[in-house]
Design goal:
The structure holds 2 protein chains of 2 kinds.
Chain A lengths: L4 E4 L3 H8 L4 E4 L5 H6 L7 E4 L9 E3 L5 E4 L4 H6 L1 H6 L1 H9 L3 H6 L2 H6 L50 H7 L3 E6 L2 E6 L22 E7 L8 E6 L10 E10 L2 E10 L6 E2 L1 H7 L6 H11 L11 H19 L12
Parallel strand pairs in A: 1-3, 2-3
Antiparallel strand pairs in A: 4-5, 5-8, 6-7, 6-8, 9-10, 10-11, 11-12
Chain B lengths: L10 E7 L2 E7 L5 H8 L18 E4 L2 E4 L12 E3 L13 H8 L9 H14 L5 H7 L10 H15 L1
Parallel strand pairs in B: 1-5
Antiparallel strand pairs in B: 1-2, 3-4, 3-5
Helix pairs in contact in B: 2-5
Classes of the chains: A alpha+beta, B alpha+beta.
The complex binds flavin-adenine dinucleotide (FAD), iron/sulfur cluster and FE2/S2 (inorganic) cluster (2 copies).
One FE2/S2 (inorganic) cluster binds next to loops of chain B.
């Protein structure tokens, strides 16, 4: 780990000023940043501690029936919040499917969103990596790529964003509130993370010095018909190979609203509005779900080690939509898939 | 990382460790784990992976279990820390979870044990695990290379049952 100075920011404005330098990094829970510091993947000269900032720890009801989650709310507190469990069980489920209790106790809402999009080569400074050292190449494209992206990747980077929480937030159409040198703005979650294109060193559309202050959930929570299906190499404590967060609204046996997002398959949580539209107005039906799933994967591309994910994702979408329609969400304790 | 950082690099922090409040100068890059082991001689907390993956460095930080290898000590001014050394009573009587690990032979080499015990104490306190499946899921952040898992689950079940 390189040496750095530590600044304890007193308020968001100071944090934003300090973080605007390219040599500075914000620390919240530290579970991603400290890990990367130890591998010399992150080498800041200054670390800006926002973990004690006032006003970012609350979970509050909004005027339009939604919920506003402060950036420093821990993953544990969010997962077990009574309102989240009752109104947004999909979000709670994704949080409990991620990492472990010890990590969730430290990890924050803002840090979870902003954990690096990454792969094992990114962690190893002895190998090239366009994300870590722009222009050096991407060894994963022709190397070991079991965990890599099948959608929206580019020849420059095929890494995936590892967050489970963000997948639910994509399906729930959350809005991320940020504050920066140019003031505050609200970023729809779909525009928060970016696809790699020819600049994979950038995971998000945040501007220098922008600090995440809160995430706002709209009122619609899909509490009656939802599921988070996470498929991985171990039953617990492993990143998703493929995951699906699904939420449906049903009336008189028909689907009136449908949202689903995929994790583990792209540089960001992956949504397909066309596939969702195929479900609206229809009765829940396996054939329909299979057609919607096939539509999502129409442009999918495997790189050898991860090609199995195309079929896995197709089946995971179908199964998740069945679980959501039946009102039988996947348990994050009993890992048997019904 | 140097063992003894030069003074100008350090920040003063106050930590209450196992009920003992101390003022300490720490370098910004020192993890809570290294502070405990290298600077304070509290070597009960173990370093397994140093990357948040194994749980052998688990401590209670302000009452909650965290992996101390991923915590920068300098960000925890004013916090309280309980390590495995702080679990026994003032008279040396073992914590019921420590006794249960002995009763159930819930270890082999013992390297993961301090982290397992801390995590298990927190699990009971959290009150969210009732069945063996729930215990296994909520202990999944503590890896045991020797595979003592069945006995660890049994030890935790004993403490949960006695607490009822
Ligand atoms: C062993 C292990 C297993 C894991 N498994 C999973 C898993 O299964 N699923 C999953 O989803 N995650 C998993 N994680 C990742 C974990 O969820 C993240 O590390 C955590 O959510 C990051 O939150 P933090 O507060 O600790 O972030 P930090 O490490 O403090 O910060 C992460 C990044 O975000 C930036 N940042 C933080 N807060 C803000 C803010 N408010 N504004 C602007 N920038 C900010 C920091 O500069 C840094 O770049 C795992 C991590 C580990 C170590
Ligand atoms: S996939 Fe992206 S993060 Fe991984 S080696 Fe290639 S460029 Fe780096
Ligand atoms: S040493 Fe901290 S989790 Fe392994
Ligand atoms: S007892 Fe040896 S690692 Fe758990």
């Amino acid at each position: 780990m390189n040496r750095f100075s530590l600044v304890r920011a007193a308020d968001v404005a100071e944090a934003s000023r300090e973080a605007a330098s390219p040599a500075a990094r914000i620390i919240a829970g530290g579970t991603n940043l400290v890990d990367l510091l130890k591998y010399n993947v992150e080498r800041p000269s200054r670390v800006v501690d926002i973990s004690r900032l006032p006003g970012l720890r609350g979970i509050e009801d909004t005027e339009n029936g939604g919920l506003r989650i402060g950036a420093l709310v821990t993953n544990t507190d969010l997962a077990y919040d009574e309102r989240v469990q009752r109104r947004y069980p999909l979000l709670s489920s994704t949080l409990l499917a991620g990492a472990t209790t010890q990590l969730r106790n430290a990890a924050t809402t803002g840090g979870n969103l902003l954990q690096r999009t990454r792969c094992y080569y990114f962690y190893d400074p002895a190998t090239p990596c366009n994300k870590r050292e722009p222009g050096t190449g991407c060894p994963a494209v022709s190397g070991v790529n079991r965990i890599h992206a099948i959608l929206g990747a580019s020849e420059h980077c095929i890494a995936t964003h590892p967050s489970d929480m963000a997948v639910a937030m994509a399906a729930l159409e959350a809005v991320v509130h940020v504050s920066g040198p140019a003031g505050g703005r609200a970023v729809p979650i779909a525009e928060f993370h970016r696809l790699p294109g020819d600049a994979p060193e950038r995971d998000t559309n945040l501007q220098p010095g922008e600090v995440v202050t809160a995430v706002e959930l709209p009122a619609r929570g899909f509490a009656a018909h939802h599921t988070y299906l996470k498929l991985r190499d171990r039953a617990s404590y492993a990143f998703a190979l493929v995951s699906v967060a699904a939420g449906l609204e049903m009336e008189g046996g028909r689907i009136t609203e449908a949202r689903f997002a995929l994790g583990g398959v792209a540089h960001k949580p992956w949504r397909d509005p066309e596939a969702e539209a195929m479900l609206r107005g229809q009765g829940p039906d396996r054939g329909l779900f299979e057609r919607a799933a096939a539509h999502v994967l129409r442009d999918a591309r495997g790189y050898g080690g991860n090609s199995f994910k195309i079929d896995l994702a197709r089946r995971a979408i179908t199964r998740a939509l069945e679980q959501a329609a039946a009102g039988t969400p996947q348990s994050q304790t009993d890992k048997r898939i019904q | 990382m140097p063992d003894h950082p030069i003074a100008s690099d350090t920040l003063p922090i106050e930590l209450t460790i196992n009920r003992d409040t101390r003022r300490l100068p720490v370098a910004p890059w020192t993890s809570l784990l290294d502070l405990l082991r290298e600077n304070l001689g509290l070597t009960g907390t173990k370093k397994g992976c140093d990357h948040g993956q194994c749980g052998s460095c688990a401590v209670l930080l302000d009452g909650r279990r965290v992996n101390s290898c991923l915590v920068l000590a300098a960000t925890k001014d004013g916090s309280s820390v309980t390590t495995v050394e702080g679990l026994a009573g003032p008279d040396g009587a073992l914590h019921p979870m420590q006794q249960a690990f002995i009763d159930h032979d819930a270890y082999q080499c013992g390297y993961c044990t301090p982290g397992q015990v801390i995590s298990a104490v927190a699990l009971v306190e959290e009150g969210r695990a009732h069945t063996p499946d729930e215990i296994r899921e909520q202990m999944s952040g503590n890896i045991c290379r020797c595979g003592a898992y069945p006995n660890i689950v049994a030890a935790i079940q004993q403490v949960l049952e006695n607490a009822r």
